[in-house]
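Reviewer comment 2.1 asked that we show a complete input and output for one of the modelled complexes. We chose the manganese (II) ion case, as it is the one discussed in the main text.
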Amino acid sequence: MNTVFAPFPVATLAVLGIPQGFPVRRIFCVGRNYADHAREMGAIDQAEGREPPFFFSKPGDAVRGGEGEISVAYPPQTGNLHHEVEMVVALGAGGANVGVEAANALIFGYAVGLDLTRRDMQARAKEKSHPWDMSKGFDQSAVVGPICPAASCGHPLTGRIWLTVNGELRQSGDLSAMMWTVPEIIANLSTLVRLEAGDLIYTGTPAGVGPLVRGDVLEAGVDGVGTLHARIV
Ligand code: MN
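Response of the prediction step:
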């Protein structure tokens, strides 16, 4: 069918080692997946077993990718923009009610990402039990470095995840500290929505989140996956 205006382009991400891009469909994010971050946010640390994972979303076109230094616009309506470094899972296949043991087969690759957050707006939303959409899903809020295909980097379960701002270490953790592993996250999320190729999943951030200002230069990395370079403008 003809459309009333030209269909908008699909956002794509760079893939290491191949010329083809990765088309982004949806962006899902896991909340509080590292206990040290849950504690710093004042969330209760459950001593008796894990709470089920919970998810929020960003629009697919909130993605901001690139191979070199990625420039990211400081968003309006906040005075407390926070960085959250996360490992991002990029799906190359879909499915519903996927078993934990079958989950890795859906994964195309992994990348280093930033779940940028309007922390002041999120705090007000939490107070009033309002939705998080505008504190999490604003333009350029989902920064992602190049995707490393699982065919080359495997499926990392351990490895350092870190972030520096202007050369100062702000976040440092290990993938092994995730409360829900990547296969468990995929299995759980696939009971809520049918996952599809092109979906991205942000897997949570370790402790050390903090504010950013215009001009800040960020370097982030996940061992075995790659690095991310960004500048707030
Ligand atoms: Mn996050």
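Residues 29, 84, 86, 115, 202, 204-205 surround manganese (II) ion (CB under 6 Å). We note this here for comparison with the apo prediction described in Section 3.2.
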